[in-house]
Amino acid sequence: MEDLLIVTTGGTIDKIYFDDKSDYQIGDPQIGRMLGELGVAFRFRVIPILRKDSLHLDDADRELVRATIAAQEARHVLVTHGTDSMVETAKVLATVPGKTIVLTGALSPARFRGSDAEFNIGTAVGAVQSLPPGVYIAMNGRIWDPARVRKNVEANRFEALDD
């Protein structure tokens, strides 16, 4: 794999809480620090373009993510994203040809003990290296087709859409 391009948009993975999960801000992207600490055997480049909760992303934000990825030479792209609107962004990214794009995030901040962030990032890194060009979501230990998955907010997990 050539260098992995990582585009960060914010979301829970980068949140910093100031009290009991109500007052927060989106902090610096955590993925570069995490991959560095893990001593990964590939080169990566991080482009932080947004620091938003995904509920606050709009069409212009999604177009910025799409245009940023389309303008880069990298064929393997990992996107950290908030989970609430990850599927919507993935559908926009489906218009980018010739790249393998994997979106991932976390249901609790990377700074929290027991966060799913490292596991989801590891799953996404494996997926982006092995899947054919297209757009995928890596969450809850699975690789999802964005057209066939939804976030179940009540259960706080991703699940397949009913056929």
From TrEMBL:
<protein>
    <submittedName>
        <fullName>Asparaginase domain-containing protein</fullName>
        <ecNumber>3.5.1.1</ecNumber>
    </submittedName>
</protein>
<dbReference type="InterPro" id="IPR036152">
    <property type="entry name" value="Asp/glu_Ase-like_sf"/>
</dbReference>
<dbReference type="Pfam" id="PF00710">
    <property type="entry name" value="Asparaginase"/>
</dbReference>
<dbReference type="InterPro" id="IPR006034">
    <property type="entry name" value="Asparaginase/glutaminase-like"/>
</dbReference>
<dbReference type="GO" id="GO:0004067">
    <property type="term" value="F:asparaginase activity"/>
</dbReference>
<keyword id="KW-0378">Hydrolase</keyword>
<dbReference type="InterPro" id="IPR027474">
    <property type="entry name" value="L-asparaginase_N"/>
</dbReference>
<feature type="domain" description="L-asparaginase N-terminal">
    <location>
        <begin position="4"/>
        <end position="161"/>
    </location>
</feature>
<dbReference type="InterPro" id="IPR037152">
    <property type="entry name" value="L-asparaginase_N_sf"/>
</dbReference>
